[in-house]
Design goal:
mainly alpha; 19 helices; 83% helix; globular
Amino acid sequence: MSKTAKSKELDMLNGKLAGKLILFAIPLAFSSILQQLFNSADVAVVGRFAGDSALAAVGSCVALVGIFVNLIVGLSVGPNAALATLIGQKKREQIGGTFHTILTFGAILGFILMCLGMLSARTILELSGTPDSVLDQALLYIRIYFLCIPFMTIYNFGSAILRSFGDSKRPMYYLIVSGTVNVILNLVLVICFHLDVAGVAIATVISNILSAAMLIIYLHRRQDEFQFRVRDMRIEKTALQKILLIGVPAGIQAAIFSVSNVFIQSGINSFGEDAIAGSSLALNFEYFSYDITSAFAQAAVTFTSQNYGAGNIKRCKRIFLLCLLFGFGFTELLSIIFMIWDDFFVSIYTTSSAVAAYALIRLHHVCSLEGLAATYEVESAALRGMGKSLEPSIITILGTVVFRLIWMVTIFKQVPTYAMLMNVYVASWLFTGGAIFIVYWHHMKKVSSNPL
């Protein structure tokens, strides 16, 4: 590998950790926030310029979109961990084959997911109780939106490749460009051309194509093991198995996690269009806060993978503690900001007092304790960095899917209020975080007594 390329890699194996983790995670958080702004811009523009019905149509798609987006993001943990482990083990000769396997698999997966989304959209929206008054608009939005899935997959897998050697800034730069384009196109297509939900969906597709193109062009121009060549696109069985071993449980966990949100969405839908619109509005603030937690979870899996590959268990423990502390602390800090200026932030998205009322209820019941999500996310990430992906996935599914479904048919059924429905999130975070910590603690005892 060239000295120039190697000099750009972040040394995760030596030196102080706190500063490196923060410098690595902050661009990731901004990247995720910018990616979330694609959908937030949709919500804000339709809410302000296309009316509450259009806002409810886009809001009805949030849970469905989440299934596919979370599946892609979860699967990208596999490429990240696989490449980071090779770097930690100094097996750089295997990087090229693994790298091209990742991108080839990503392209095939993206196309398959796009087709599945198109075919399942109506069924899932109907099962989630989407009102007939907004169903047609919701279907129009989601079917256009799904055209961006292949490009979203390529972008997320490509970003995972960059993260594996410590480059978390470049994906952020690409999203700044594509996110700006998205917002401009939203305004033009909705205000000038009156395309409403179709306009915001088209803008999102174009933005995702742009971000994926910029990333692939950069990889093509590299002069090292991470150089992308079309002629080298292939799938190596051994590399794919390593990627899927970690990525599939994480991806399934994330997708099923979103399935639970579909059931919760059905409960939200029972309160009418104002509740649907208000919930989708407030969800944006939760995503922004959660993006910080997710960033430190990604830092945990990347740093842990390299150091576990290098056999430094003591440093892995330090990474876990710092990521947990930073993830909880910084997430809560942003949540507090949203809580203090709640009326202002909600007014960005809607002028309806009825919609705003539901948004504020969700904001205060869920966002106020968003930092608790860092417990199970960072714990799961640390375990995956050590190649242990199945156990945290099973527990997360039990804690955030089964637990929430039980809540829906017991507590919410007894107290069928919108506020009680929102309480399910915090309760499930506490349950899941505690359970996964027990698994992490037992695993660390095992690897500490039997070092690599």
